[in-house]
Amino acid sequence: MVSILGKEELDGDVKEQIGVVFDGSNYPEILSPRKLNRVMKNIYRTWDERIYFGLLKQFSLPYDKPIKQFSKGMKMKLAISAAFSHHSRLLILDEATSGLDPVVRDDILDMLLDFVQDEEHSILVSSHITSDLEKIADYIVFIHEGKVVFEKPKDELTERYGIIKCGAAQFDALDKSDIISYRKMDYEWQILVSDRERAQKKYPKALVVPATIDEIMLLYVKGEK
């Protein structure tokens, strides 16, 4: 059974506390941000236009330009502004930073980090930009072809996982129970392990390096077991 904000059924009060940003246009494109404000005031009892217009100004979004004339990045900034403007406790973001330049994306990630400093706030992020996940995520669920490959605390992945890089002779000598997956490259073997410090002590002559989230995902999917 799945519960959201402590409830198994989404009543009006719970829905008001959820902010959603989809990958794409979120609102009727004939509206302008100013007109959208009037719509949102009638939808959310907790709508705060002071926050809303403050974010529009921060993102340099025009108040009276139709949304249909916005770029993809501008539409995403508008959606994020709206999601932050009704005092949400849970934010659901689907590729929310895609299409944004690195500076604005970093600003939004900082906003998300500030948001989750309150222990009653949570964010569910769907993203292919793993550097974003490394910055803001506490837990990472990796889904490939509709199946959950792993569900791990981010710190476990970034601080403990590692890759052994070695030749064929060293690979043959490895304890296979230490191996999560492996790939044979042109000039070396790459072996994913869940505890790089332990691996370095056990195999002192091998090169054991930290693994990025990208590398971990690739080795889980493309590596051999």
- The CATH C-level name of the largest domain is Alpha Beta
Provide a count of the helices.
10
* Shape label: elongated
Radius of gyration, taken over Cα atoms and rounded to an integer in Å: 22 Å
- Sheet with most strands: strand arrangement: 7-8-6-9
The main sheet comes to: 4 strands, antiparallel
Query: Would you tell me the structural class of the helices and strands?
Result: alpha/beta
The assigned CATH architecture of the largest domain is: 3-Layer(aba) Sandwich
Helix content: 25-40%
Q: What is the total domain count?
A: 2
Average pLDDT over all residues: 86
Number of DSSP-assigned strands? 9
What is the N-to-C succession of helices and strands? HEHHHEHEHEEHEHEEHEH
CA(first)-CA(last) distance: 32 Å
CATH topology of the largest domain: Rossmann fold
Q: What would CATH call the homologous superfamily of the largest domain? A: P-loop containing nucleotide triphosphate hydrolases
How would you characterize the overall build of this protein?
By secondary structure, this protein is an alpha/beta fold. It folds into two domains: 126 residues, P-loop containing nucleotide triphosphate hydrolases (Rossmann fold); 68 residues. The protein contains ten helices and nine strands. A four-stranded antiparallel beta sheet has the order 7-8-6-9, sandwiched between helices. Strands 1-2-3 form a three-stranded parallel beta sheet. A two-stranded antiparallel sheet has the order 4-5. It is elongated and about 70 Å long. The model has no long low-confidence stretch (mean pLDDT 86).
